[in-house]
Amino acid sequence: MKARVFGDIASVKLNVERLLTFLLLLAALLLGLLPAFAETIPDPNRPVTIISDASAKLMDQEGAGRLYQVGEWPVLVMEGTPREMGFQHGRLMANSITHMIKAGYMTKALFGRGYSAEYVTAQSERMEKHFPPEIIEELHGIVEGLKKAGIDNLSYEEVRLGVTQAEILHFPPNSPPSCSNFACWGKWTTDGRLLHGRNLDWSIQGGAQDDAAIVVWRPKGGTPFMMVGWAGGVGSVSGMNAKGMTLGEMTLPSPDATFDGLPLFLQMRLMLEKTGTIDEAVKFFQNCKRTTGWNFIIGDGKLPDGRALETDWKYCNVFTAMDPKESDLTGHWGMVDCVRRTNHPVDIDQLFRLAHAFGDKFKLTVDSKDQIPLLVPLMQTQDSWQRYEWLSRRVESLPGKIDIEQAIRILSTGPVYDDATLHSWVMDPKNKTIYAANAGNNPPVTATDRPFTKIDLTSWFN
C-alpha cells in the first residue's frame, strides 16, 4: 500500500509517522537521482596556478585550418564551409580522433560499460534525424579528412557518436555526473565585466582528457565561436562566441526524456553559432527540439547579463538574476547580477514534478506542492544543494573583488571541488579570453588541481 502525505499542516501533525516515512523515502529518492558528496573540501584561499604567457605554436595546417599548441592545450582553428571545416578537423587531428574512438574514452565509456553497439547505433540514428544538414556535412568532412591522413577504419557512424554519446550515457548502466556553473557581473567583479565559471564533473578515469582540445570554428559568413571539447567532436558542453555569449551545462534529473531530439552537444554548439544576444539564446533553447534534462547558464558579456535555464524534453524554464521563482520555499534565493546552477531544479513546480513522477518507485504518493517546503532541511544536506549554496555564498562574500583568480578559487574549493572534474574554466567574453584547466592522467588528477592556461581568442574571433 502506498504511504500518503497530506499538504495540510494540521493533517501532517496528526500523521507524524507518515510524514517521517515520506521524508526518508524522498530523501532516498533524491539521493539516488543526484550525485554524492565530494570527499575533499579544499581551503577557499588555496593558491591557484595561472599560466598567462603561453604562446600559440603552429603545429600543422590543412587549407585554411590550423592546429596550434597553447601550453598543454591543442587548439584547432577551422575556417570555411561545414564540409571544409570537417575536413580540416579530420586531417589535423586524425591520431587523436582515432584514439578517442577506437581505444580511448568512447570505447571505455560506451562499450566498456555494457552498452551494445546495436543500442548505441539505434539511439544515435534517432537523434540524427534532428541534425541540421550542415552538421551532417561537417561529419562527412571529418571522415574525408581522416582518410587523407591515412585513417580508413573509422566510419561516419562512429564519428557521429561524438555528438550523441552524452544522452546515451545519461541512462543506465551509466550514472549522470555532477557539474557547477556561475556567471556574475556588475557589483561582484572588479570592473563590472561578466565572468562565467564552469566545472565539468564527469569522469577522469576513462581518459577523455587525453584527447581534449580547444576547438574554434570560423564558419564562412558566420560568427566565430569556440568550445572546450575533444578531438572529433562537432559540439561539446562549454563554449563562447565572438559576440560575447558564454554557455555551460549541468545534468538535471527529469522524468521527461527522449532520444528523439537534438543532442545536447549540438544544442550548445548551435546556440553559440546562431545567436548573438541573450534573448536570441533563450529563444533558441525554447524552440529547439530538446532531449533529456539539462540546466544551462548563459552569459552575455556585452550587457552584461545572464540567464539560468532548467530544461528537458517538455519544459524550458528561464530564470533571470533576482528571479522570484528562486525562493526560500525550496531553499534557494535570487541574487542581483548573478545566476548559478548545479544539478537540481530550484523551481517548486519542477521539484514537485520530479517527486511526483518518481514517488511510485518508493511506494510513495506526492500529490501537492505544499509538501515540498517541508523537505527543505533534508534537501539542503545534499551535494547539489550544497554546491549551489557555496557558489552563492562565495560570490556574496566578494563584492567588487571577483577577478579571474577568485573565480577559479570558487570553482576549486568548498563542496564545488570534485575529484573527478574533467575540465574547469573561466570565460572572460569582454576580453575574448578563457582560462582553462584539463584533468591529468597517469595517474588521473582532477582539473581544478592543475594549472589554468590563459588562451587569448582575439585573433581567431576577429
Plain-language structure description:
The protein contains 15 helices and 19 strands. The protein is α+β, with helices and mostly antiparallel strands. Strands 3-4-5-8-9-10-11-12-13-14 form a 10-stranded mixed sheet, with helices on one face.
Radius of gyration: 22 Å
Low-confidence stretches: 1-22
> Tally of extended strands?
19
Q: Approximately how much helix is present in the residues?
A: 25-40%
Which overall shape is indicated by the principal axes computed on the Cα atoms?
globular
The helix tally amounts to 15
Overall average residue pLDDT? 90
Percent in strands: 15-25%
Q: What distance separates the N and C termini? A: 65 Å
Short recap of the structure:
The protein has helices spanning 9-14, 16-33, 82-92, 94-103, 105-109, 117-128, 133-148, 156-168, 264-274, 278-287, 348-358, 376-379, 383-396, 404-412, 458-461; strands spanning 3-4, 50-51, 56-62, 65-70, 73-80, 178-184, 195-201, 212-219, 225-230, 238-241, 245-251, 294-300, 305-311, 316-319, 338-341, 364-365, 421-428, 433-438, 452-456. The chain has 462 residues and is an alpha+beta fold.
Highlighted features:
462 residues; 10-stranded mixed β-sheet; globular; 19 strands; single chain; 15 helices; alpha+beta
